[in-house]
Design brief:
Oligomer: homodimer
CATH class of the largest domain in chain A: Alpha Beta
Largest interface: A-B, 111 and 110 residues
CATH topology of the largest domain in chain A: Aspartate Aminotransferase, domain 2
CATH superfamily of the largest domain in chain A: Type I PLP-dependent aspartate aminotransferase-like (Major domain)
Strand order of the largest sheet of chain A: 3-9-8-7-6-4-5
Strand content of chain A: 15-25%
Helix content of chain A: 40-55%
Number of domains of chain A: 2
Chain lengths: ~450, ~450
């Protein structure tokens, strides 16, 4: 059971059986599989990746946003030139350097009044999830609940810290609160400590479903009653198609139940890899003082990535500054694209599978975001995805990647964020051909 | 023992006793303490931080390097404009996008012939250390050896994965190989599996000491014989002051014992937060296939940071392209600054504490890098550092931050990378005043 074979027998060979269990976990394989498959079928129409629309990307924007942030440091923050240089080039504050800009953005777009000191800027929202789970997982009894189907990144981060993920049923209004209560009781009876519940309240990945307002309030009350943290992940909230955005959990939170997880991957751009956590919970330290949960996350971060690249922070802050601290304004054109695409998807599905027709195909109707879910009369698994890509030229995501078990065999996720209107029509034609072939 | 106090009693308050043990560990406190103290005494001369020289930073370089990489993608890699945009803006390959450029640099500067597929670009070398330790730590028996005194970031990463760090004694030639053999035996008798040994062979942080060539060869032989991986961390190798660089362990490695950990924090700039691992070890996977250790690290990375910011990779690659893939060329001026500073430090110490004089003060003579170690006739601890900053206006680093125990109470680390000649003279005057006061 040593890491390496006996000596003097040639090059080192490791055995995956001797490495951390996460490396044999389907959650980690999933992410890789989903990341790579698009590359293997470059000519297929892809409803697979949760990537933002590329049509408005321009390389020059990076330079523009960077210069905007430089001017902000020099003119608004009154930093002398050597301090501007230092901010961009040197090691920086572990919790980040653009916390005030991001806090202002949260106020403008989300009605969240966050103490900038309670923010931790991270390398994507993924690092924020990792930091929170690492801090909360003290021993094998600590578990995290997650509204299922859950984003695979949450499950993967939990695997890295050997933390059990307990599924909570979703519902048409977002989350089944009775099931959440039941899951908490079950966990506690089993000797577990449910530390937090993870969910995407707005246009969830993978289902596109949102929590309605009464459910948001009821969930917050339940969390306060049960002493449960809520991990609110909100990458898609800005991409509302209804014109009536609902308040985030964090903006309704009066007891500090919510750790808010933010991402600029869809609203800024993915290549910046910028995310953050708002962690304003108070923490009693060993010497009896009180600190912020953000400062505990910062300690973990100092041993994972030291600090978030200043360049990434500068470019995204520049984008926010250019648009009056508002991601809604910065994404005006993108919001329209996603809204149009959602309508085209729903109309296109309705035209190809009219009510009462065969094969029987159903889908949900999200109020925004990047995703919807289609239920098909057969198994929508990885093998079928390969067949679909090869024979029909269309990519999608098997829902089983978002479940622990097998319960979603007949559902597939369609992403409509990175496709043109022409690709939507062509892709839906191809998908319909696949469905007729499989159901036939 | 729940995460939160009983409900309906007001805002959430967590107790650090219920969070992960790493948050109560001195290693994590150290990093924060060392990161913050410079900020508390802005007017002190600082021999504390391991930061690169700032004199040649220019904001315009970021734009220049970024454009250089854009041209490389368009002209040398022949990517059409939409793919150049995609490379900079979208999600990218988990192992990184500039692997070929970095592999070429390793060949030019280090004589390391690395398969680009065996590289994983990371958010600083810290993430690379974390990925390696996370992958290698399967259960409580897995331990990592580290040549002591060791970089605090290695210890911190080990804490996050609950991995024991076993110290190996250093020696004037870098590492005490007899102690390494003894540590291996002791660990195995205790039922532990020593998976790897971490060291900085060139101009180590914190001691400045390097392994001589015979020790490099003997260490590689010992590692092959014992089936031990070597984690070679090389942030300072380029900053040689002798004119005779020694070969890296990786360039001498014929059996795949070495996982090479690279950093562009000192040779590029810290704000890019770019590092990498070369992990060309073969791994037997569960289905009997053989992969690269780099691909296992990539799976872990997909759940920590998803991928390394494209911007950071682009800017550092641009810097490499501008200088013929050579960090030595790119750092020609910096190498001279550090060499001059090292000479000034050694001369300045010798002038202030001539041979045979009192108080008795000793120091080592590194062949390059950022650091040297001074032995003083009293305790050089955090309390004295506060006093030194407040009363004498000079900062340095207590060596006890790099030890598990108390054995280095009389030694302090002096960094000479971020100071001017004037600051060196002033700082050494102030240090001499402190030493005379404490010894008096």
């Amino acid at each position: 059971m040593t890491a390496t074979p006996p000596p003097e027998t040639g090059p080192v060979e490791l055995d995956v059986a001797g490495l951390h269990t996460s490396l044999r976990d389907p959650a980690l394989e999933s992410m890789n599989f989903l990341n790579e498959i698009a590359g293997r079928y470059p000519d297929a129409v892809s409803f697979a990746p949760g990537r933002p629309y590329e049509g408005f990307f321009e390389v020059e924007q990076v330079h523009t946003y960077l210069r905007r942030y430089e001017r902000y440091l020099a003119d608004e923050r009154r930093l002398p030139p050597d301090e501007v240089r230092r901010a961009l080039f040197q090691y920086g504050r572990t919790k980040g350097i653009v916390h005030e800009v991001v806090a202002r953005c949260l106020e403008v777009d989300e009605g969240i009044h966050a103490d900038p000191e309670a923010l931790v800027l991270t390398v994507g929202c993924q690092e924020a999830m990792y930091l929170v789970l690492r801090a909360l997982r003290a021993d094998a009894r600590d578990a995290v609940l997650a509204v299922a189907p859950a984003y695979v990144g949450l499950v993967g981060a939990a695997r890295l810290v050997d933390m059990e993920v307990l599924p909570v049923a979703s519902a048409p209004n977002g989350v089944d609160l009775d099931d959440l209560t039941a899951a908490l009781s079950r966990a506690r009876r089993a000797g577990l400590r449910p530390r937090a519940c993870y969910l995407v309240p707005d246009f969830s990945n993978p289902t596109g479903v949102s929590l309605d307002l009464p459910t948001r309030r009821a969930l917050l009350e339940l969390a306060a009653r049960e002493g449960l943290l809520l991990l609110e992940d909100n990458p898609y909230g800005v991409f509302d198609a209804t014109g009536e955005r609902l308040p985030t959990l964090k903006s309704l939170d009066t007891t500090g139940q919510v750790v808010y997880l933010g991402s600029f991957a869809k609203t800024g751009f993915p290549g910046a890899r910028l995310g953050f956590a708002v962690a304003d919970q108070r923490v009693r330290t060993a010497d009896g003082r009180t600190g912020l949960f953000a400062d505990e996350l910062s300690k973990v971060k100092s041993m994972v990535t030291v600090n978030t690249p200043a360049l990434s922070q500068a470019v995204i802050a520049g984008k926010l500054l250019e648009h009056g601290y508002s991601l809604e304004k910065a994404n005006r054109r993108e919001i329209e694209v996603y809204r149009d695409n959602l309508r085209r998807m729903l109309d296109g599905l309705a035209r190809r599978f009219p009510a009462g027709s065969r094969p029987r195909v159903a889908w949900n109707t999200p109020g925004g975001g990047f995703f919807l879910v289609v239920t098909v009369p057969f198994r929508g698994d990885d093998a079928l995805l390969e067949h679909s890509a090869r024979e029909h030229g269309v990519l999608w995501t098997p829902m089983r990647h978002f479940y622990e078990g097998e319960s979603a065999a007949d559902r597939i996720r369609l992403s409509f964020s990175q496709v043109t209107p022409e690709q939507i029509e062509l892709g839906l034609d191809r998908l319909a051909a696949l469905i007729r072939e499989q159901a036939g």
